[in-house]
Design a protein that fits this description.
This protein is α/β, with parallel strands linked by helices and about 240 residues long. It has two domains: about 140 residues, 3-Layer(aba) Sandwich (Rossmann fold); about 80 residues, 2-Layer Sandwich (SIR2/SIRT2 'Small Domain'). Helix content is about 30%, strand content about 20%. The longest helix has 17 residues.
């Protein structure tokens, strides 16, 4: 008998426990920068060196961070379930925590790509600068989905969640689209476990009939969710 399929929708909150700051602080800035200055195609066209420097710093911070118990508990689900992690995070802490099937909706800090392509990513752990080129001589840019750009992985994410036997939401309040709409594609009978220390139940969650709110942080909440899944799903 095949293992039940568990889809985890994760966001910045789970990585915050590893010391990575969330996308926007309470003042609306991202690491003291306006999003419009570092996370749009227009920003890159206007001042590519500023944008590259911003992501170089984020990449350096990421290399100093380590997965936390929340990441590891998600990975441990693979012992009993087929697990797909669909994350809005651009870090690689899920992979380093042991997860083997991770979809990054918004790109990855540890990869770069040509300014002319959405695919063809190249692993990258150091700084990126003007003059760093691909094999065809094209300037490289961060492999990040900026505001105003298409989300290439969204169709695959929809396909994955459409086959879910259960969904875990952790580290995200599902306010940013198109990721926020994904839970609506889960089968009607799939239970949803929503982990958040300050839960804000979205329209998509209110529309579902089997939602379990776990009012905790990511790591603590994942421990509770793991036990709850055993009650909700069978793994005969």
């Amino acid at each position: 008998m095949s293992k039940p399929h568990v889809v985890v929708l994760s966001g910045a909150g789970i990585s915050a426990e590893s010391g990575l700051r969330t996308f926007r602080d309470s003042n609306g800035l991202w690491e003291e920068h306006r999003v419009e200055d570092v996370a749009t195609p227009e920003a890159f066209a206007r001042d590519p060196e500023l944008v590259m420097r911003f992501y170089n710093l984020r990449r350096a911070q990421l290399l100093e961070a380590t997965p936390n118990p929340g990441h590891r508990r998600i990975a441990e689900l693979e012992k009993d379930y087929r697990v797909t992690v669909i994350t809005q995070n651009v870090d690689d802490l899920h992979e380093r925590g042991g997860s083997t099937n991770v979809l990054h909706l918004h790109g990855e800090l540890t990869k770069v790509r040509s300014v002319h392509r959405e695919d063809g990513e190249i692993p990258w752990t150091g700084d990126l600068a003007i003059g760093d080129l691909d094999e065809e001589g094209n300037q490289l840019r961060p492999h990040i989905v900026w505001f105003g750009e298409a989300v290439p992985m969204i169709e695959r994410a929809v396909e994955e969640i459409a086959t879910a036997d259960a969904v875990i939401i952790v580290g995200t309040s599902l306010q940013v689209y198109p990721a926020a709409g994904l839970v609506g594609y889960a089968p009607d009978d799939a239970p949803v476990l929503y982990i958040d220390p300050n839960p804000a139940v979205s329209y998509e969650l209110r529309a579902r009939k089997d939602v379990h709110v776990i009012e905790m942080g990511g790591s603590e909440g994942m421990a509770v969710a793991t036990d709850l899944l055993r009650d909700l799903l069978t793994t005969d």
